[in-house]
Amino acid sequence: MRGNKLTSFFNGYVTVELIGGNVSALINAAQAAGVVIWDISWQKKGHAVCSLPVRDFRRFRKIARSAGVKFHILHKHGFPFILVRLEKRKFFVFGFIIFLIGLVAASNVVWDVDVEGNDTVPDEEVIRLAREAGVYPGQWQFRLEDNDTIQRKLMLELSDASWVGVRIQGTRAIITVVEKRKVDDREREENSGGPYDLVASRSATIADLSGVQSGRVLVEYNQAVKKGQRLVSGIYGNDESESQMIAGAKGVVIGETWYETTVAVPLQQERIVYTGEREISRYPYIGRWSLRMPLLEKVSYDQYDTVRRVKTLHFRQWKLPFGMIEAEHMETNREKVVYPVREAEQLALARAEQDVLSRLGPHGSIQSSKILQKDVKDGKVMLKILFTVRENIAEQRPILLEKSEDDT
User: Fold this and answer.
1) Which of 57, 220, 256, 284 has its CA 20 to 30 A from that of 301?
2) Are 155 and 143 in contact (CB under 8 A)?
3) Rounded to the nearest 5 degrees, what angle is found at the Cα of 256, between the Cα atoms of 207 and 217?
C-alpha cells in the first residue's frame, strides 16, 4: 500500500467531485475500462468524490460524458504538479538554490582563527605561523591540510610549545597551545622525593665536573670510577663529624667510557624513490559511498603511492554527510643500489653512530671510533666498532639516614 501511494505521488493524481447522472454506472464503466479509482466516498445520492491517476484522466473524462456525469477537480497531488508550480516561480526557485549554495559555501570557509591556552607565546606569532601553514580567514576548509600535518608544522616553529592542537569548529579554526612548563629549582627539589647522592651509573673515567650544581664532590678529573661509586655527596661536612648538613646533590658528571657495537649493511639494496611527478584527482562522496569514475581517474603512473584527504563540508557547527575526497598520486621508482665496500662501511659506521648517540642522552657525545673487526660475506659488510664517548654518568641515589636510639 505504501508503495502504491509513493508511485501515485511520483506519477501524479487528482481528486475529483462527481455530480449528477448515473455515478455508479460511471465508476463501474471506468473500472471495466482499466481506470484505477480509489478513495471513493459517497456524499449523497448522485454525488461522490474519488481519486484517480493523471494518466487515466482523459479516458475517465470521456466515460463521464457518456454517462452524463459532471465533475470538477478538487485537488491536484503529486510530483508533476509540484514541478508545474515551481516552473511558475522559477526565478524564486533559482534564487533559493543560489542562496543555499552560497550558504553552504560560506559555511565551509574559515572566517576566524582563534588561539587559546597560550600565556607567553603571542597570539600574533601563532596566527602568523598558522597563515604560513595555510590556515587563515577566507581559506576554504576543503583546501586545508589534515590536522596532523598543520600541527606538525606549528610544533616545528613554536619552540616554547609542548603540544599544539588544531580543530575546525563551524567556520572557526581553533588553535590550542600547550606551553612548556618551566620548573624552578625549588619546585624540582620539592618534587625530587628527598635528598640524593650522585653515584656512577657505569664504570668510566671522570672527564668534566663543571656541571655539578650542589653537593660535595668526592672524585677528581681523570679518576677511574666503578659503577655504583659515589661521585657527589649530598651531605656537607666530614662523615665522622657530628655537625653535618644534608642538602642533597644535584648536577651532571661527565665520564668518558666505551661502547662496543656490531652492525651489518647489505652491499646491494633496493629502495623506493619519488620522481617528483604527481597527479591530483578529486571526487565527491555521500555517506559511506564515494562517487568515483575509474575511467576518468586513471593514473598514468605504473608505480605510485596515494595519499587521500577527506574534506568534510559543514553547515555551521554540523558536519554534512557529503564532501570531497582529494587523492594525491605520487610516482615512485624502485632502484637497486650496489654500494662499494668502502661506501657500505661508511653507511654502517653512520648507523652505528646514530644507535650509540640515541643511548647517550642530551649530554652525550662521541669522541672517537675504532673498527675492531671488518668482514665481507653473504653480500654484507659487517663491522665491530668500539666508540669512545662522553656522557652523564651521574644518577641519583637516596641518602639513607640512620636513626639513633634517642630518635625513637
Assistant:
1) 284
2) no
3) 40
Residues 6+ apart with CB under 8 A from 233: 197, 215, 216, 218, 249
Q: Are 7 and 50 in contact (CB under 8 A)?
A: no
d(Cα 358, Cα 342) in Å, to the nearest integer? Answer: 25
In this structure, CATH architecture of domain 2-83? 2-Layer Sandwich (3.30)
Contacts of 300 (CB under 8 A, 6+ apart): 279
| CATH fold of 109-179 | Ubiquitin-like (UB roll) (3.10.20)
Q: pLDDT tens-digit profile of 229-256?
A: 999 988 876 655 555 677 788 899 999 9
Cα–Cα distance between 30 and 28 in angstroms, integer? 6
Query: Distances from the Cα of 277 to the Cαs of 6, 246, 296, 297, in angstroms?
Result: 52, 67, 19, 16
Work out the number of other CB atoms within 10 angstroms of the CB of residue 385: 21
Give the whole-angstrom CA distance, residue 364 versus residue 166: 35
Q: Alpha-carbon distance 88 to 324, whole Å? A: 34
188-226 b/e (C-beta count within 10 Å ≥ 16 → b): eeeeeeebbbbbbbeebebbebeebebbbeebeeeeebe
Q: What is the pLDDT of residues 77-104, one digit of tens each?
A: 888 888 887 777 777 777 878 888 877 7
Domain layout of the chain by residue ranges = 2-83, 109-179, 185-253, 261-267+339-392, 270-336
- Assign 303 a pLDDT band (cuts: 50, 70, 90): confident
CA atoms of 388 and 305, how far apart (whole Å): 42
Beta-strand runs (E) in 209-267: 212-214, 216-217, 224-225, 230-233, 235-236, 245-246, 250-251, 254-266
d(CA 24, CA 67): 10
Whole-angstrom Cα distance, residue 16 to residue 70?
10
Cell numbers describing residue 183: 620548573
